[in-house]
Every structure is written in C-alpha cells, then in structure tokens.
Amino acid sequence: MPAPETGLPKGAPILEVEDLHVTFRGRVGLIAGLRGQKGTRSRAVDGVDLLVRKGEVLAIAGESGCGKTTTARAIMGLQEVESGTIKYEGKPLPRNLKPYLRKVQMVFQDPTGTLNPRQTIYEIIAEGLRIHGIDRGPDGEPEEQLVARALSRAGLRPPDRFFLRYPHELSGGQRQRVVIGGALVLEPEVIVADEPVSNLDASVRGEILQLLMKLREDLDLTIVIVTHDLGLAWTVADRVAVMYLGRIVEIGPAEEVLLRPLHPYTKALLDVVPEAGGLDRPILTGEPPDPTKIPPGCRFHPRCPVVVSGKAAELGIEAACKGEDLALEEIQPGHFSACHASRQLGAEAAAAAIAAAGAAVAPEPVAEDGRTDDAASDEPPDGT
Amino acid sequence: MSVLSLKDVHITYHTASGGVPAVRGVNLEVAKGEVLGLAGESGCGKSTIAAAILRLLPGTTKVEGSITLDGEDVLAMKPGRLRAVRWTGASIVFQGAMHALNPVQRVGDQIGEAITVHNQAGEREARVRVGALLEQVGLPTRRAMDFPHELSGGQKQRVMIAMALACNPSLVIADEPTTALDVMVQAQVLRLMKELQRDLGLSMVFITHDLSVLVETSDRLAIMYAGKVVEEGSAATVFHDPKHPYTAALAAAFPEIGDRRFRGNPTGLGGDPPDPQEIPSGCPFHPRCSVAFADCERTVPELFPAGEGRRAACLLVEGAKTVATGVSE
Fold first, then answer.
1. Spatial CA neighbour of A105 closest among A267, A215, A9
2. The model scores a pTM over 0.90
3. Contact across the interface for B264 and A284, Cβ inside 8 Å
C-alpha cells in the first residue's frame, strides 16, 4: 500500500463541525438545588471546529478528558450539544437523525461491552438493517446475503460459520471485527472509531488497523479515529488533530504534525511515546487540568514548557500566553496551531523555542500530579 | 546469586474441562539489581508466572519445577514462612490500581498495615515510614489521610508503588503497572519506577504486552508465547533486532513515529493466540508465522543460542547457527 501523500487532502468536505460546545453540569444536593445553586459547569468541548474531507483518515488525539470522545459522540448525535453546528455534506443535521446515522457509523472502544452477549453474531449484524427497515440490498439481495457480505468485508470468513455463534465464543480481535461488520452492513460513508484497538492485544492491533485501511481503500470510506496513541496516528492517519481541554490546539497533515509539531503540547505528547527518547526526555507534570476550571489565556500555559522554562518571557510573548485566549491559525499551508509562539514568531522560530524549552525543563524531578492542589489554586474559576 | 530463579516451571490450571497448561517449562533468572521484562499477549502465561512467584494461584493449580527467591524454595515454604516472605521478600504492583486499593481505608493506613503486619515497626514508627514512602514516590505526606477516591489514577498507582516498597523487598513484580493509565501519566509513573529501581538497587520483574515500554525500563527481556519463553536477551537488542518472528511482530505493533515503513501500513500478526488446551504441534507459533516452513509443524524448537547473551526458540535461528559454525570450521 503506498504511503498517503503529504499535503492537503483533496476530497470534498463530508463532515463539518462548527464551534461545537458541550457542557456537562455537575450534580448539586437537594438543599443546594432548592436554594437555586447550580452544579459546576464542565466545558468538555469548548469550541471545536473541524472539517473532514471525503476519503481521508483523520485522527483526533489527546489525553483522557481532552474532549476527543465527547466530540466523536456529538458527531454521532449521541451527545446533547450546547451550541454549534454539525453539517453532513454541507447541510446541517436534520431533526430526524436516522438517515444520517445510516451514513455515519460508530465503532466503539470495547468490543466486549458493545456486543450483546445474548445475541448471535447474525442478529447483531442484522439489527442495524432491521432498525433502518432495510430488508433488501440495493440489488435486491436478501438480508442473509447482506450480513454475510458485511462479515466477510470485516474479515470473518467464511461468514456463515459465524452466523450462529455468540460473542463469548470469539477472540477479542474477532469481536472487534464483528463490531466493524455491524457498522459496515449499512454501507456507511463515514466511520467514527473511538479507540478501536486500545482494548486489544498488541499483536492483534495491526490487523484491525490493516482492515480499516483496506476498507477505506475498497469502499472509499472516510474514517475518523479517536486515539491517545500517536504511533497509531502515524501508521494510519492522513491528518492529525490534537485536542487539549476541549479545543483542537493543532491540526494538519500527519507528517507535519507528528514530525514538525507547532504546538508545545503536541511536542509534549510526542515526547512521552515510549521509546522515543528514553525516560530522560521531558515529561509534563500534572494531569490535564480540570475542565471546570479552564485557565485564562492560552489554556495550556500552566503546563507549557515554553512558559514554564521562561522562554516565553525571553521572547516577549509571556503576557499573551497568560492573558490572551487564541484560536487555531494557519501557520503553514494546511497546518494550523493555536500557540502564541507559532503565531507571533512563525513556524521555524516557534519550533526552535519549543525544542529549547523542552531541553530546559527535561531533567526536572518527578513532582506530584496534583491538580487538586497547587495547579488549580491560582486559577480563577471559569466565567460562569 | 540471583534473587529469583525459575527452573523448568510448569503451571497447570484445573478446570471443569480438564487441565489447562498455562506455563510449559519456563526458566528465568533475575540477578540482584536487574530488571527483567516479561512480554507476550494475553494468555501467554506471563501473569500466571507473576502470581506463582508469591504462590497466589488458586489451590487447585498444579505448579511443578522450582521457584527460588533469595535461594529459598518458594514451593516448599510452610504457610507461616510464606506469609512472612510475601511483601518482605517479594512484592507486587498490580495492574488496576483503582481496584487494588481498599476504598474505605485511608491510603496511609493501607501502606502502614503492610509494615505493622510484618512487624517491621510499631504504629507510630510505621506512620513516619509511610510519610517517607509517599515522599519517595512523589506524593506529599499529607496524602496519607486521603481515601483512594480522592486520588487520581496516577496518584493511586504511586500509592501502590509505595506499598510495594513498604517492607524493603528484594524483588518487586510489576504486572502491567501502567496499562490503565493515560499516556502522560504512564510516562511519569515509568520514570518514577525507573528512578526508584536505580536508587534502591531493586530487582524487578516487569510484565506488559507493550514492548516499547519494556525496552525503556528493562535490562533484559523474555518474550513468552503459549506458555514458553521464545526469545530472551538484552532489552535493546531483542527489541531492535528480534530473532524470533513473534518478537518481530510484537515490536512492530508499536512503531516509532517517523519510521516510514509503517506509514499508511499498519503491520499485524494474523490469527489468534492458541488455545492452551489445543497447542499446535511443533513450534506453537507456526500457524501464525509468516516464515514458517514444513519442519516447523513437526519439530518443537528449543531455545537456541542466538548471539551474545541471547537465545531464541526458532528453527531459523538454529539453521543460521549451523551455517555460521560451518563457515568458521
């Protein structure tokens, strides 16, 4: 298989997400509720713009809690959104999502939890057809043939051998293939896969990814993969979007984002991919801060090596980092970053600053990953 | 003398459908201050070995061969002696930190319990020691008063590590210590473990399916497949220059970013791990092996020497050796 070319994907826009906001509200007790107090707002997705082109593989990466799964669920209509628009083929989603959901299918993380243990594989695959009231294929094929085709596309061959089996009789990799088969049976245009291999054994991962790549080639599928694993993004994605605290902070062609990152957070994520540089490379301290208390200015600044190392002050951008929130900006063709360093200094100088800052903070002692303590104390509450 | 030594260990689980051989003749040595990485996919027997070292397996399980810890035969220990050795001789950092801690006990008390139960110190002294341990793993002393739910995943795993160190064991077994953690936190915990190991001169057995994690943390690697070690050697050489096709497949599952061979081309291993009750004939890996030949179906490969300090159970390695000796002679 030829490596996907660098540069910009050329297909027509198929999915567009505009200024998406998803907020979760914390619970309050009865008395507090009667007094009119509201739970704390957690801004899980806080202004995501995304354009997915037909036929591309887009990876959305980030730490737990960055909003990547919530974004995917919002795209699938599984998540109530506070504001923002999602468009499919240029048109906002209609009230009745059913026709849309036939075109856009989701593959979930844990195949064991996704499959009904009391259904046979045949019933699991046919369920989608039945929900959508499809009893014949486009060429008048009967249901059985449609199910068989989906299973064999998912690599479960011969398909009729699997019809009457139950999920517990299959291995983890086979179960994930059933999940993929269930998505394929409706002949979708887009597959949204949420961590499709993270629950699988190392040796099986490659096979499932190979399958997704092959399906994309054969069926001209568009694939959105949500993952925390940048190595996976390197192997399969045309473009990579990196999320931090509910926003995309960097997006661009995979080769650019992963080899020449323009955002210090992307660099930090790349540094912790095991084996990248031994354990002496810089590791961000702390866990992602709380989405109920998003810092002012650049949301990454409290953990940003460029700011922490004093490099930002040296370059005269510290005030902006700490005080000015910023959106994605195209730094190089097709490569967007939301970082004051790359915005004000340009790509090369920003990359140099990020590298220098990383080196400066590298051998720091392991500190407490304490978001509940010091990290949060100097942050003002969010603007609710 | 090695801290841990396993000689021809066979472990068979007892089930309703008969015996399930999970470990089938494993030899392992861990020298003082050494970190041994044990890798393989689910069901290869790696966690079974971890549990067998402290005799944590169900009573019906049959364990044969010899397991010695600091020169003492673990399999022959009387219950009292076994209880004393657990945690003081060898301790385990379990996989799911979130489930391994007691949710209704303060974490300081949980660590302290290990110390007092083993009569290493009285209540008061134990409290001081708990504070020191928490600082050692990068948590402030006051965290001792917290309940597990007040800690994040990474912090809980730090508590588990502090607990494992509580009685100064000569061996720490880490069974998938970072699998449930996020990438950034995983890196923090791995660095902590590596620093502690270096500073305290700990001997460790590090178990995971992620070879790229092992190559950073371990001195030596042993790769397991279907209950047997199929390759061993120094961590970097095994990872970067695998001799066994299975090791190569495992290593390729975690490609390096920037390696163009993998760009747009995920590599995987066909098929599924073998059922321990129906292990294939000959080399157990042959049905999934891309370079298998006719002999592989018939001959069970032993661990052949494969370079300096390395061994691999593959007939191709044996073939290479014959060729090499033929030339030198």
1. A215
2. no
3. no
Which residues in chain B are contacts of A59 at CB distance < 8 A? none
Count the residues in chain A. Answer: 384
How much of chain B, in percent, has pLDDT values that exceed 70? 96
Specify the DSSP class assigned to residue B21. Answer: E
Which of A112, A214, A230, A235 to probe the B interface (max B CBs under 10 A)? A235
Q: Which residues of B touch A200 (CB under 8 A)?
A: none
**What tokens appear for A227 in the block?**
């993952």
- What is the interface pTM, i.e. ipTM, of the complex? 0.82
3-state secondary structure of B80: helix
**Contact at CB, B254 and A231, closer than 8 angstroms:** yes
- What angle, 0 to 180 degrees and rounded to 10, lies between the N-to-C axes of helices A143-153 and A202-219? 120
* Alpha carbon of A287: minimum distance to chain B alpha carbons (Å): 7
Q: Give the pLDDT of residue A151.
A: 95
| pLDDT tens-digit series, residues A81-135 | 999 999 999 999 988 999 999 999 999 888 888 899 999 999 999 999 999 998 8
Burial of A384 (0-12, 13-18, 19+ CB in 10 A): exposed
The set of residues, in sequence order, having a beta carbon less than 8 Å from that of A377 and lying 6+ positions away, is none
| Residues within 8 A of B (CB atoms), A 212-271 only | 213, 228-232, 234-236, 255, 258-259, 268-271
State the distance between the two ends of chain B, measured CA to CA, in whole angstroms.
36
Inter-chain touch A235–B266, beta carbons under 8 Å? yes
What phi-psi label fits residue A238: left (phi over 0), alpha (psi between -120 and 50 degrees) or beta?
A: alpha
From chain B, pick out residues whose CB is under 8 angstroms from the CB of A287.
Answer: 152, 154, 182, 184-185
**3-class secondary structure for A104-121?**
EEEECCCHHHHCCCCCCH
Q: What's the rounded Cα separation, in Å, for the pair A163 and A151?
A: 9
Nearest CA in chain B to A273: B183
- B contact test, residue of A198, A201, A259, A372 with most B CBs within 10 A: A201
How far apart (Å, rounded) are the C-alpha atoms in residues A286 and B96?
20
Q: What are the sequence ranges of the domains in chain B? A: 4-89+167-328, 100-166
Contact residues on chain A for B209, CB-CB shorter than 8 A: 201-202
How many Å lie between the alpha carbon of A142 and the closest alpha carbon of chain B? 30
In chain A, where the domains are located: 13-243, 260-364
> Which of these CATH numbers, 3.40.50.300, 3.40.50.10070, 3.40.190.10, 3.10.20.310, describes B4-89+167-328?
3.40.50.300
**Cα B206 to chain centroid, rounded:** 4
- Cβ atoms of A208 and B268 within 8 Å: the answer is yes
User: What span, in angstroms and rounded, lies between the C-alpha atoms of A86 and A235?
Assistant: 28
Given this structure, which CATH class describes domain A13-243? Answer: alpha beta
d(CA A121, nearest CA chain B) in Å = 18
Rounded to whole angstroms, the Cα distance separating A228 from A14 reads: 24
Measure A77 CA to nearest chain B CA, in Å.
26
- C-alpha–C-alpha distance, residues A107 and A195, integer Å: 8
B140 contacts A171? CB cut-off 8 A: no
* pLDDT tens, residue by residue, A256-302: 999 999 999 999 999 888 765 556 777 887 666 778 888 999 999 98
